[in-house]
Amino acid sequence: MKRGRKLKGLNTLKVAKEADQLEKQQNQYLGPSLEDLPKPISFDILLRLSTKRLLICRCVCKPWRNLISDPEFARLHFERAEAFPLIRSSSRTHISRNLYLVEPPEDNPGYESHFQMKLETKFKIPLRNAELVMNGEGDANVGCSSKGGVKRKRCIKLRPKEHKLNVVNSCNGLLCLSAPSLNETFMVCNPITGEFINLPVPTQADESSKKFIDSGLGFSPKRNEYKVIRMFDRQERPYERIREPITGREFYSGRVAEIHTLGTRSWKRIGYAPCSYLEFPTYLSGSLHWLFIDINISDYIISFNFDMERFESVPQPPLDNEEMSLDMLWNMSLGTLRGRLCLCDCSDSGYIDLWMMEKYGVQESWKKAFCIGTKTGHARCLRGLYEPMSYLRSGAILFFHRLSNTVFHFNVKEQCSSPKFLKVRGIKSKYEAIAHIPSFISLKDTVTYDDLEVLNISSRCAGFKLQGETKALFLEIEDLDSDFGLLSDLEDGDIHYGSD
């Protein structure tokens, strides 16, 4: 028996040596690998890949992961990266941590007929009050199943009120996240790297105005700092008579603004804030912009300058309509396309008037870049807001139509091109989308403070999944004229058709 065991051991060593020799021969036959190339050449190869392909390459081996995580490569990639829609379920009854990046398919960039694409580029955002879930406290309804003796991840159902985070806006590859109600919880997250940081607890707002709180993330180029602004009605009474920073009107108000610089430990009050609805927070050129929904229609685009830490009015485009109204403002959306501020005017049923500011801050540089028809062959159109998402190098412009859960695709280079409605399918839910530029830049390289605690989503809450997270999402071309498929997942009254 001893001899047999000894012989078995010798055979094992022999097999191992033969395997090593075979691997060396294969490597010699295959030639040098990517990590053997000079860095500039390796970077040039990787920069040609989509975000989806880069994420796959990052998981191949450690040398490839190090290349893609290299700060120099991350910077070069971000400089060339395009914005894409980032889609998320906005259900009121369940929480979704998943974000789906919509990149055009490599084999069908024009979304030709009978097209269907699985959204495989998926990321997660953190949970609010995650410690309670990990410790088994709070409202977590935990279910655990096993099949064939193999344990599966715990499936948890959580109440959105205690654990959901809203995606406020995107800035330089980072997302600003906040609690839905009083915005007492703030996080900044890079969904590509999975990193996030918790912000200090801000000043408590007036309970009666919890739906009237605005916030957003921006960057100060002069100070090289990221900042989060928050506007709310303070609790202290009585309110004072103030002059509003945008309209100049005088009235009693307790609406104030606070600013937090990422990496510090506190919020700083900077004065009074505009007292109207602010929609579509959009970062560009060191300022955060909003549509200013107010009775005073003359200044309906405002901004907050992060260098000067003050509110400013933005020059308005010369719209075709002689008289502006609140109804018209509710049919407009704000965004950026190819680094330019843009306004989508959807007040004319069946058309999107897309205005772009060619030179930032100059009113005369506003141009009506495109007038895009949204009508089908039977003169039927989907009314509602079209939010600008992407202006791709291929010439395609992507919008998101929230009422119908569709990505609206139109190629401005092809004169005979017809618009395409790409329906989000997979989970019966409403969806929201935000324009986002993917970034592989680490938060540790973005916010340079010694005592900053950078957390990782994959290392926290990795042992469980939320209900519905494993279901796949698809984009599929819908024909408005055939079976009204766009209405299939919506409730009555959510969508309106227009016709001539």
Report on this structure:
- The structure is a single chain.
- The protein is of the alpha+beta class and 500 residues long.
- Strand 6 and strand 7 (150-151) form a beta hairpin.
- The protein starts with a helix and ends with a strand.
- It contains 9 helices and 36 strands.
- The strands form 10 sheets. A 6-stranded antiparallel beta sheet has the order 3-35-31-30-29-28, with no helix packed on it.
Brief overview, please?
The longest helix is centred in the N-terminal third of the chain and has 29 residues.
Write the SSE topology.
Blueprint: H1 2-30, H2 39-46, H3 51-58, H4 62-69, H5 71-80, E1 84-89, E2 98-101, E3 116-118, E4 122-124, H6 130-134, E5 141-143, E6 146-147, E7 150-151, E8 154-157, H7 160-163, E9 166-171, E10 174-178, E11 186-190, E12 195-198, E13 214-220, E14 225-233, E15 240-243, E16 250-253, E17 255-261, E18 268-272, E19 277-284, E20 287-293, E21 301-305, E22 310-313, H8 326-329, E23 332-337, E24 340-345, E25 351-357, E26 366-373, E27 380-382, E28 387-391, E29 396-401, E30 406-411, E31 420-425, E32 431-436, H9 443-446, E33 455-456, E34 464-466, E35 474-478, E36 497-499
Parallel strand pairs: 8-34
Antiparallel strand pairs: 1-2, 1-32, 2-4, 3-35, 5-8, 6-7, 9-10, 10-11, 11-12, 12-33, 13-14, 14-17, 15-16, 17-18, 19-20, 20-21, 21-22, 23-24, 24-25, 25-26, 27-36, 28-29, 29-30, 30-31, 31-35
Pfam families: F-box-like (PF12937), FBA_3 (PF08268)
InterPro entries: F-box-assoc_dom_typ3, F-box-assoc_interact_dom, F-box-like_dom_sf, F-box_dom, SCF_F-box_component
Organism: Rhododendron griersonianum
